[in-house]
Amino acid sequence: MALALHSYWRAGAPYRVRIGLHLKGLPYDYVPVNLLAGDQHGAAYKGLNPQGLTPALVVDDGLVLTQSLAILEWLEETHPEPPLLPRSAADRAVVRAMAGIVACDIHPLNNQRVLKALAGLGVDEAGRNAWAARWIAAGFEALEPMIARHGAGFAFGESPTLADCCLVPQVYSAGRFGVDLSAYPAIRAAAERAAAHPAFAAAHPERQPDAA
Ligand SMILES: N[C@@H](CCC(=O)N[C@@H](CS)C(=O)NCC(=O)O)C(=O)O
């Protein structure tokens, strides 16, 4: 199976998918989409993803998958080993809730297009950073007790799950926005544990071919 991931090195949503691909041990071609140059709005990319958002994963030159959580779930269903979701329905719901806090409640409020829209409304850089930091902190406040309760090295249990695929890019982004992580020891511990894992290391923004 040939896989091509359309990605931008520093963006959180493609970073999630890179982690998933590396955890599953699946090789892929890396296709850079320069979000600063506006490649995501061009006809070529919009032909793949009409939303004009990264990532897009092209499978065997035919199937085009978008939305990072949908892609990760597809990976899990088509390549069950190693599992990114725990066995019981209850545990799966917890992992999906952790992933959802990041992907549905934190990240959409501070991705590039939202920050650009704020700039268009006259919000200066300090204001935009404070906005992003506020919503990251709101999500991390909820994630911290969940990870403290369910984590055992990784965010849920002793091995990486969908929750770590989402958490690690969000912690990276928190660093860019200057969020103080000292109030979140469980989040920090899970992110540090993941950083030591080869799949997470390979997916790191600075290891990507388009890293500036
Ligand atoms: N919910 C989408 C979010 C995708 C998204 O916001 N992608 C960002 C990068 S993290 C993007 O391509 N932004 C381009 C822009 O805002 O113009 C997903 O999980 O895939």
Number of domains: 2
Using the coordinates shown, work out and report the CATH topology of the largest domain.
Glutathione S-transferase Yfyf (Class Pi), Chain A, domain 2
Distance between the termini: 30 Å
How much beta, percentage-wise? 5-15%
Regions with little confidence, pLDDT below 50 for 5+ residues: none
Query: How many E-type strands?
Result: 4
The largest beta-sheet arranges its strands as: 2-1-3-4
Q: What pattern of helices and strands is seen along the backbone? A: EHEHEEHHHHHHH
Could you characterize the architecture of this molecule?
The chain has two domains: 3-81, 3-Layer(aba) Sandwich (Glutaredoxin), CATH 3.40.30.10; 89-199, Glutathione S-transferase Yfyf (Class Pi), Chain A, domain 2 (Up-down Bundle), CATH 1.20.1050.10. A hairpin with a 3-residue loop joins β3 and β4 (63-66). The protein is globular and about 45 Å long. Helix content is 54%, strand content 8%. With 212 residues, it is α+β, with helices and mostly antiparallel strands. The model has no long low-confidence stretch (mean pLDDT 97). Bound molecules: glutathione.
Topology:
Blueprint: E1 3-7, H1 12-23, E2 29-32, H2 43-48, E3 56-59, E4 63-66, H3 68-78, H4 89-106, H5 112-120, H6 125-150, H7 162-176, H8 185-195, H9 198-203
Parallel strand pairs: 1-2
Antiparallel strand pairs: 1-3, 3-4
Helix pairs in contact: 1-3, 1-7, 4-6, 4-7, 6-8, 7-8
The structure holds glutathione.
The site of glutathione has 15 residues, from helix 1, helix 3 and helix 5.
